[in-house]
Amino acid sequence: MSGPVTIRDAAPDAQSDEPQVCDVEVIDGRDAEVGGFAVRRVLPRRQRRTVGAWCFADHMGPGSTTATHGLDIGPHPHIGLQTATWLVQGAMLHRDSLGSEQIIRPGQLNLMTAGHGVAHSEETTGVHRGSLHGIQLWVAQPSTTRDGEPAFEHHATLPQAAVDHGVATVLVGAFLDAVSPARRDTDHVAVELALEPGASILPLDRAYEYGLAVLDGSVKVGDCPVDRRSLGYLGVGRDELAVEVVEPATLLLIGGRPFPEPLLMWWNYVARTQEEVTAAHRAWTDRTERFGAVSSALAPIFTADPPWA
Ligand code: MN
User: How many angstroms separate the CA atoms of 189 and 172, rounded?
Assistant: First the structure.
């Protein structure tokens, strides 16, 4: 038996005469847990490993920190990357093997450069009670600095610029006439956008690719919604980004020149070869001087050898 096609086969509202114009690639994140806290990992994903030098992004919370439970990550190692921590709500304590001990609050940037090796812990229990909400990102270091000395920076205030219906805070790199003092080993940018409802046109660099993470609220790029669970990806060659904000929104725009080298990422290491990862992991597992010690009450984190070792 055949035809006719009925309304049950193809509901009229499922097909519009006007095709949806999706001016952004929406990459779905995945739910994960870090340090006892729910996160949404939007980078790396199978279809998108890097955005410029940005190679990792965990949207943390919002979730609650109590007297006995919060986001608590014991000492663990890193190589070849920078960690950038940015909070929307709450506070977190960073400690590292350089002796740094730094509380971070909303509007501030913690930027740790691992280079050849560093270890750090991050904790909220006993530091903060109430809502915790933020994002942690990694930046892959280029070959010129990735074997260098580790370092840590805290930026208590960052430069801002006015945009349509809101304010841009520049974490890393330059945006409009605001330039962040944060260390930058490659050509990349990160900007928080606090936007009120309305249409905003944001200037972009044609040489950069971009990712848009929605920390709060909701936005549309073209006809396409980007929500808290995903990353909106924009390829190179754009002069501007038009976003329509439906309810007050906090966005994080990351971008940069496409990273020129393939990365090998395993556990907390960003490298180029399996041998480099194996050597770093042996140094951490054997507790050698390469990563140093972190003065934290939390237990250090160890994991099994990489699958190829
Ligand atoms: Mn870490």
Answer: 5
Does the pTM surpass 0.85? The reply is yes
Residue 3 lies in a domain: no
Q: How many domains does the chain have?
A: 1
Beta bridge partners of 144: none
Are 70 and 132 within 8 A, CB to CB?
A: yes
Does residue 214 fall inside a structural domain?
A: yes
- pLDDT 10s digits, 115-137: 999 999 999 988 899 999 999 99
- Compute the distance from residue 109 Cα to the ligand 1 centre, in Å: 15
CATH number where 221 lies:
2.60.120.10
Q: For residue 85, report the distance from its CA to the centre of ligand 1, in Å.
A: 10
CA of 76 to the centre of ligand 1 (A): 6
Look at residue 304 and tell me if it is in a domain. no
